[in-house]
Amino acid sequence: MSTAVATDQRATRAVYVAFTFLGVAMASFAARIPQIRDELDLTPSRLGLLLLAIALGSITSLPLAGQIVGRFGSRRTVAVMAVLLGASLSAVAIGYQFGVVPVVIALYLYGFATGAWDVAMNVQGAIVERRIGRSIMPRFHAGYSVGTVAGALAGAGAVAVGVSVTAHVTACCVLVTIAVVAAVRQFVPDDDAEPETGGGGLSRTLATWREPRTLLIGVFVLAFAFTEGAGIDWISVAMIDDYDTSAAVGTLAFAVFLAAMTLGRWYGPALLDRYGRVPVLRALALTALAGLVLFVFGSVTPLAFAGALLWGLGASLGFPVGMSAAADEPAKAPARVGVVASIGYCAFLGGPPLIGLLGDHITVLRGLLAVAVLLILSIALSPVLRPPAEPETRVMS
């Protein structure tokens, strides 16, 4: 095995670790949202506003992420953000016992760390993808989903056996920080990416914000991010409050949703290669829509679980395929990925308070129907995902 091949294999494993453990951290926190909600005595709308702090942190960091990665590199950016994420989620796990204010501050920092980490690991993933000459970005995102499933199942187990939020989340944060800081040492240098001729980084970023296709891809990603985020934030709450299940069963429904997303991301690339982005994403949007309707109107717990499964499967590829579409031209990929991620993360800015507000008036379960509007929008926008070199139409066979 040549030195270059060995280097690429180590870098590939390191990118998987970065994606996977970000998912572990996110799901470990999300699995304990009902307990944090109860301790703070929050209504659905106030819980939505609390979760808004995460989105505000991400929206702050995402426009800066391209410049941060350009200056410090993806390796250092992910390492530093892993430390910040671990510290901030640990602060949530301790601070929720003392009131809302420390939780809001800690969640803002968690969102900031998540946004910059996300862009940096996608940039490194794109570099590795080009070095090995295979399309593996969806599988990196599948690694994230594997992490979310592991985190959700660990959360369900912690709830079932009575482990406190503080002990559970803090232990998770220590594990995530150590694993990621060690792994990113195997990242390849960012200067292996194709250089772009032209103006400086800031001018390129500003110009990218004026590209119609990039902006439309961003809106498409926003629609799927809202679909994914609504499931992550509200499935367990809806199961507990509206289906009257136990906290453990609600967390298991959340885990089913995440497991379905994982399967879609792992096996989806074969469908993308055969049929193309546009027909596959349209079919998945319809699948998510069917799952959402079944979850909302299923009436009984088994149908809600089936709805969560279809919802997660349908939501699986929107975000990673949007990132791939943004990176179709390698030289412009970092700036475009940053723009698309910034727009997509607006779903996490508006989603929690919107669903929470609707939850106060028509229940969280019925409020989730807002997702259907964006899924319909994503179907209309799906043609923007077509690679520039791909024919205008493809025949499914």
How would you sum up this structure, described in words?
With 397 residues, the chain is an all-alpha fold. Helix content is 81%, strand content 0%. It contains 16 helices and no strands. It has helices at 3-30, 33-40, 44-95, 100-132, 137-161, 165-183, 201-208, 212-241, 247-275, 277-297, 301-315, 318-326, 333-344, 346-362, 364-367, 370-381. 57% of the residues are buried. Mean pLDDT is 87; it is low at 193-200 and 391-397.
Tally of DSSP β-strands: 0
Rg, nearest Å: 20 Å
Question: In percent, how much strand structure appears in the residues?
Answer: under 5%
Our count of helices gives 16
- Low-pLDDT stretches: 193-200, 391-397
Shape: globular
Order of helices and strands: HHHHHHHHHHHHHHHH
Biggest sheet statistics: none
How far the N terminus sits from the C terminus, by CA atoms, comes to 38 Å
Q: Average pLDDT across residues? A: 87
Structural classification: mainly alpha
Q: Indicate the percent of residues in helices.
A: over 70%
Tags for this model:
single chain; 397 residues; 16 helices; globular; mainly alpha; disordered C terminus
Summarize the structure.
The protein has helices at residues 3-30, 33-40, 44-95, 100-132, 137-161, 165-183, 201-208, 212-241, 247-275, 277-297, 301-315, 318-326, 333-344, 346-362, 364-367, 370-381.
List the topology elements:
Blueprint: H1 3-30, H2 33-40, H3 44-95, H4 100-132, H5 137-161, H6 165-183, H7 201-208, H8 212-241, H9 247-275, H10 277-297, H11 301-315, H12 318-326, H13 333-344, H14 346-362, H15 364-367, H16 370-381
Helix pairs in contact: 1-3, 1-4, 1-5, 1-6, 3-4, 3-6, 3-13, 3-14, 4-13, 5-9, 7-13, 8-9, 8-11, 8-12, 8-13, 8-14, 8-16, 9-10, 9-11, 10-11, 10-16, 12-13
